[in-house]
From TrEMBL:
Cell location: Membrane
Membrane-traversing stretches: 116-138, 158-177, 206-225, 231-250, 402-425, 445-467, 479-504, 524-543
Family (UniProt): Belongs to the major facilitator superfamily. Proton-dependent oligopeptide transporter (POT/PTR) (TC 2.A.17) family.
Biological-process GO terms, alphabetical: oligopeptide transport
Statement: the UniProt record of this protein carries the keyword RNA-binding: no
Molecular-function GO terms, alphabetical: transmembrane transporter activity
Alphabetically ordered keywords of this record: Membrane, Phosphoprotein, Transmembrane, Transmembrane helix, Transport
Membrane-related topology note: Multi-pass membrane protein
Stated name of the protein: Protein NRT1/ PTR FAMILY 8.3-like
Family annotation (InterPro entries): MFS_trans_sf, POT_fam, PTR2_symporter_CS
Keyword Phosphoprotein among record annotations: yes
Cellular compartments per GO CC: membrane
Pfam families assigned to the protein according to its UniProt record, in alphabetical order: PTR2
Length: 553
């Protein structure tokens, strides 16, 4: 025993073994705390033991959301007797709002409430909205009378008010959930522990898997219930699942790891800009170690860690430059005059006799994700790790890039299928008839599977990227910004469709996308999207090549 002890001492002297540090073995190293605000014990909190409650919450919430959104146009036209154009406009406006409200939730989570209480509060608002929506589809006085022949009485202002009140409470509720749940789940893994860091990468895969389980049930079972049984039950089921989502979330409270809110990120951005402008003529030292930062690795932002200095946005380094005035007054507490380095790093339709509901075609996209996530996590990542040496198989930027390549292929496959469909329409003399051509809708399945595969790479990669590369105290906000790109993508899609319709219908031409698609050239539109996707890929590769990953100091 004595010899073993002497050998261990020698190894310690040579630096081969690190001395045990009890506090690091017991507590997390990322500053996380328990519900009471005390440092958390690693073995009894967080990690995969806390994730089922969070993944269950996300699965149920997404089932509730897609249970409303997937068939919403049908409800507006068939039950509220809205026109097609008006219904489509109402739905797109609502969906756009659902991707804008996360900015509200993110700021509240990062600055004041923390992710846990933001999710809890907005989930309750979400549930109230679901309940109101269910009542509007169940209580006769809240619905317009049924159609009599071709006459369909429009909904009254009161009926519209109740319906849209429920709908927009849901939009508000989702604003506090979307940007926080993925980040809160990732918070359960300690960034300073290599094994937990690998597990966190796997968490994002299973997080997106749980989203698609909820979406699968909604786009298949719930759509069938709404079309064949009734809308009251069709909306009531998602409401029940939203209640289950809240119960699932609260059930894990005792084993969650929490990150403290770090104050308003918007205020910190303004402070950096103001401090830089006040020192516009000050020379920035070439040695970044001379820039102002708190000692001993402590961050000026509560719940955050210090970040390494980078050479990007050097003009903002002036905010962290120490001047003679700062030294003479010994006042380093005014963030409007001097800021730390960390603070500056802000950044359709048959199958035999069965008719496939039109809203259920997206099921194949969902199935693709559900199949691909386990394959990616259990097979592709270990295989890629052997070649790349990266603990997650691919870096976040590589993963997103692969997804963008697949999206170009997807649009190309869609164009080729449309060329085949138009050829059949010409052969069958169906060009002037607005009827389906004898080509099964199931030929679209490969495209949907490719879309799902692309999502596994791009969307999950983006989740990882926006979490890992954001400052600790701004992770909810950065997740919201990632969701905001989806809103911009929808608006861009609307703009492209409008421009294509305008330019291709000039001179009395039917255009690429007429009401009778047999007369159009939807294939041209798909080739256009493929070209834009390729351009996007090229720009992405250039930008990714210049990006420097954030590292915690």
């Amino acid at each position: 025993m004595a010899g073993a002890e002497r050998g261990e001492e020698a190894a310690l002297e040579q630096g081969l073994l690190a001395p045990e540090e009890p506090n690091q073995l017991i507590y997390t190293g990322d500053g996380s705390v328990d519900f009471s605000g005390n440092p958390v014990v690693k073995e009894t909190t967080g990690r995969w033991k806390a994730c089922p409650f969070i993944l269950g919450n996300e699965c149920c919430e997404r089932l509730a959301y897609y249970g409303i959104s997937t068939n919403l146009v049908t409800y507006l036209t068939k039950k509220l007797h809205d026109g097609n154009a008006s219904a489509a406009s109402n739905v797109t406006t609502w969906q756009g709002t659902c991707y804008l409200t996360p900015l509200i939730g993110a700021i509240l989570a990062d600055a004041y409430w923390g992710r846990y209480w933001t999710i809890a509060t907005f989930s309750t608002i979400y549930f109230i909205g679901m309940a109101i929506l269910t009542l509007s589809a169940s209580v006769p006085v809240l619905m317009p009378p049924s159609c009599e022949g071709s006459f369909c009485p429009p909904a009254s202002p009161f009926q519209y008010t109740v319906f849209f009140l429920g709908l927009y409470l849901i939009a508000l509720g989702t604003g506090g959930i979307k940007p926080c749940v993925s980040s809160f789940g990732a918070d359960q893994f300690d960034d300073t522990d290599p094994s937990e860091r690998i597990q966190k990468g796997s968490f994002f895969n299973w997080f997106y898997f749980s989203i698609n389980i909820g979406a699968l049930i909604s786009s298949s079972f719930l759509v069938w219930v709404q079309d064949n049984v009734g809308w009251g039950l069709g909306f009531g089921i998602p409401t029940v699942f939203m209640g289950l989502a809240i119960i699932s979330f609260f059930s894990g409270t005792s084993i969650y790891r929490f990150q403290k809110p770090g104050g308003s990120p918007i205020t910190r951005v303004c402070q950096v800009v103001v401090a830089s402008l006040r020192k516009w003529h000050v020379h920035v030292p070439e040695d970044s170690s001379l820039l102002y930062e708190l000692p001993d690795g402590v961050s000026a932002i509560e719940g955050s860690r210090q970040l390494e200095h980078t050479d990007e946005l050097i003009c903002l380094d002036k905010a962290a430059t120490i001047t003679d005035v700062d030294v003479k007054t010994a006042d380093f507490t005014n963030p409007w005059r001097i800021c730390t380095v960390t603070q500056g790093m802000v950044l359709d339709p048959s199958l035999g006799s069965f008719k496939v509901p039109p809203a259920s075609l997206s099921t194949f996209d969902t199935l693709s994700v559900i199949l691909c996530v386990p394959i990616y996590d259990y097979i592709l990542v270990p295989l890629a790790r052997r070649f790349t040496g990266n603990e997650r198989g691919f870096t976040e930027l590589q993963r997103m890039g692969i997804g963008l390549v697949i999206s170009v292929i997807t649009m190309s496959v869609a164009a080729i299928l449309e060329i085949k469909r138009l050829a059949i329409a010409r052969e069958q003399h169906l060009v002037d008839q607005n009827v389906p051509v004898p080509l099964s809708i199931f030929w679209q399945i490969p495209q949907y599977f490719l879309v799902g595969l692309s999502e596994v790479f791009t969307f999950i990669g983006a989740l990882e990227f926006f979490y890992d590369q954001s400052p600790d105290a701004m992770r909810s906000l950065c997740s919201a910004l990632q969701l905001l790109t989806t809103a911009f993508g929808n608006y861009l899609s609307t703009f492209i469709l409008t421009m294509v319709a305008y330019f291709t219908t000039r001179g009395g031409n039917p255009g690429w996308i007429p009401d009778n698609l047999n007369q159009g050239h939807l294939d041209y539109f798909f080739w256009l999207l493929a070209a834009l996707s390729f351009l996007n890929l090229v720009i992405y590769v250039v930008c990714a090549g210049k990006y420097k990953s954030k590292k915690a100091a």
